[in-house]
Amino acid sequence: MVQANSDFSITEVHRAHQDLMEAERARVAGNLDQAQRHCEALLERHPDYFAAHSTLGSIFMQDGNYASALPHFIKAAMLNPKDWETLTGLGRVQMELDANELAIRTLNQSLKLAPDETKTLYLLGLALIAQQDHDLAVEHLERAQELDSQDALIPIRLCECYLFQQQYSDAVAALKRALELSPSRKSKAYIYRLASSLPKEVEFDLDLLAAIDALGEPQPGDDDVTFAYMEFARASCLDRLGRHKETWDCLVAANAPLAKRYEELAQAHAEQVDEFVSKCLNWSLSKKSAKNEDEKFPLSLFIIGASRAGKTTMERLVGASPRVKMLQEHNLASSTARHVAQRAGLLTTSHLCELPGELDPIIAETYRERLLKCADDADVITITHPGALPDAGRLVDCAPNIKFVFMKRHEDDLAFRIFGRHYEENTNPNAYDLSTIYNHLSRQNALIDNWLEKLGKQAMLVNYEDMVADPKATLARVAKFSGLKLPAKLDPQVGDDRGCAGPYAKWMKQAR
Question: Contact, 74 vs 80, CB < 8 A?
Fold first, then answer.
């Protein structure tokens, strides 16, 4: 082991600190190349200089180079595990590299050292949103807002949570607060996009169309996303006013640049799904022996279907029953696949169907451990993650006490609502071209039909139209299927979006 040298002259100590300050001044001024050179020269002389590692990590992070930032934050945290700023920087890098579980752990460590740091609270809120834990995210974001009432991003993120929780009065208040803080042009466009998604009956004291128009024509600094926020929001407003041709023109304009951006990714995704369809069509139930201990585990109820097919509405109906924990789009299945693949020394995959059959015992062990951790004391957990669709057969082979509710919806209505929605970056590359959307829906329906045929009593179909027409009867069917106790009182508030594609049928047909 190399022994660190701590015998430095006073002159060298001052010189190193001056070099560090020079690097920090360059970083703050945006001269990142210069700042990087200063830090790297420092680390050549002093490989264990904590502050230089932490600063260099911040430089790479500021430049969006998170992979290069990671080892420096890790080294800094090793050298000084009690520095909250380093841990917060490390947590953010972990988030950017899609390691949200690890980021949550790191950010919680940072909060223990500095409980009132707004930046840490905000980042932890974002990580919890990514993990679909909106209740806990709200706690941290509300605390962040108490400590820093001038940051427009905090009420924007709170609004996202409130919308998901259907707390519309809180969502409106958060949007108004964000607008009062003079947000950036891009943030303002996103605020209008969020406002346009409020239910029709919710009052928002703003002429949304006029506000969007006030943003003016696209500016040189705008990116495709800013333009998309504006046009999707405008389209939603126009649709509600019955101005259908203008709505369609806005949607076409909003989707065109995104379709171009995601064209290659959508093609690669289609090829992957074709492989999944082939695997699933050839799948047959394994002859595993029934295990009595399986019944000791909570029921995993997967509610799966295409985006906008009514999964969230169905989950909320089920969630009204006692001892049900709604996990939304929890990554229970995909995180199990990743862990097992890595444990077996394979390339990392998020799909169980890609793992060899001899790994079934490890899949079963890993799934059970993760299930108990996320279920707490619930008898039933619900998951709506769409990525679990190709893995239904493998889950039945390996997971205890599991059932599937598959959601379908009128294809044109479904395609129109997908085409009218802006998705988080890289989450749905199929969403911005109508032909791609319909092809994707065809593949998903093939998978659903396959599982309905092969899974027998472990799967059932719910049509969106039936759920909207009679939510109580639909819940009764699902409750009987999954052994749920019906809630004592149920007054479901289910929106009716049937027939939404009707006014656009001509243009949709032409676009295909």
Answer: no
132-136, 303-307, 312-316, 344-348: the lowest-pLDDT one? 132-136
Query: Would you say 382 and 301 are in contact if contact means Cβ atoms under 8 Å apart?
Result: yes
Residue 1: the pLDDT is: 41
42 to 35, 48, 385, 477: CA distances (angstroms): 11, 10, 47, 67
pLDDT of residue 491: 76
- For 458, the token pair is 């472990």
**390-439 confidence digits (pLDDT tens):** 999 999 999 999 999 999 999 999 999 999 999 988 889 999 999 999 99
- Please name every residue paired with 460 in a beta bridge, in sequence order, or none if there are none: 405
Q: Which residues are paired to 300 by β-bridges? A: 381, 402
Contact 458, 394 (CB under 8 A): no
**Beta carbons of 339 and 364 less than 8 angstroms apart:** no
CA–CA dist 421, 500 (Å, integer): 14
b vs e for 447-464, b when ≥16 Cβ sit within 10 Å of the residue's Cβ? bbebbbebbeebbbbbbb
Q: State phi, psi for 223 to the nearest 5 degrees.
A: -105, 180
43: how many CB neighbours lie within 10 A of its CB? 17
**% of the chain at pLDDT higher than 90:** 83
Question: How is the beta sheet containing 402-408 ordered, strand by strand?
Answer: 324-326, 380-383, 299-305, 402-408, 459-463
What is the residue type of 218?
P
